[in-house]
Design a protein that fits this description.
The protein is mostly helical. The chain contains 16 helices and 2 strands. β1 and β2 form a beta hairpin.
Amino acid sequence: MTLSPTQIARSRPRIPVLYEALGVLAAYFAYFAVRGATESEFERALGHAELIKAFEERLGIFLEPSWQAAILDKQWIVDVSNWVYVWGHWPVIAGVAFWLYRSHRDRYRLVRNAMLISGGIGLVIFTTFPVAPPRLADMGLVDTVVQRSDFYRVLQPPALTNQYAAVPSLHFGWNLLIGIAIFRGSTHLGWRVVGVLSPVAMFAAVVLTGNHYIIDTVVGGTVALVGLRAAYVIAQPATPERRGLRAIRARAAAALRRPPASVGATEQPVPAPWPAELGAAVAPIGAGVPSALGVRTMSGCAPGMPCGPTSRSPLATRRLGDSATILDLSEPVPPESRPATPKVSADQSVARSASMQARAALDGPTVETGVDADTAPLEGGSPVTG
């Protein structure tokens, strides 16, 4: 019976909501631990910010001051950037996570694990390489979110924010993961467009608001994709092919560890690796040929034949009609152990002689061949014996 993907998803146990809440709470406490460890690292964070600026200048991508200067006199662009930065992050993540949890449970696990893994990588970088954002690094940029609006403090109060977590930009990286989830989980063209535009809009927002460098978004996107790849590897099931490969390797290793049999030792017969019913059904198909050849069939041994060890005997396959009989040709059977050749009775001999005489009378004289008619072999049989 083959189950549809929907049936498979329904048959799997549901993820406890409490379990998910505990995971989020653990990640929250880890973030606060890192925030506490870097809160007094202002001078170090400024030094790292200068390194980021110099690196972008060498690449020719230090464009943050000029980009922000181009929009500061256009209030609607500033408002849109602020709105995307605040409401396009945590509310969107929560909404998409709820949708995935309800409708695409496997994709939910994938995105959740990707965010946890990339978040763990980000915490390590925040701790070892704190970087002040452009709005705090005296580079000619202002924090438009704080100066032009107050709603940001509702979702992310300053007391709960790590001020030196510019690199990597998980603000962009996690929106990239959400955009991928929307694009792959939805079949509607409109939602797929939203999935593509979401990370693009967040990239513009984090730079125009003075909260991240351009290189931050590159690192953040890379970390997020690494987390997604790791989550994908973790989610891979043990397919039948993989299980079969592991079984083959285990049998090969066991065979290599098996000590060789000593000379003259008697091997015990090993049970056939197929069901007895299968052997009983196939054996009659080739009973004649294997018996005459003196070889064993799948059901064990040919009638009247002795059974020897079969554990290390190669198998050969003989096709008989549309069926197959597996024959063990590696151990020839001595002639004395083969079944006796059937003998021709006296009545059969007399009948054959009369038939040959009648044919000779009709055909006329025949050329002598040196073969006695009484001793000529019967068709498909043995020499006639009186």
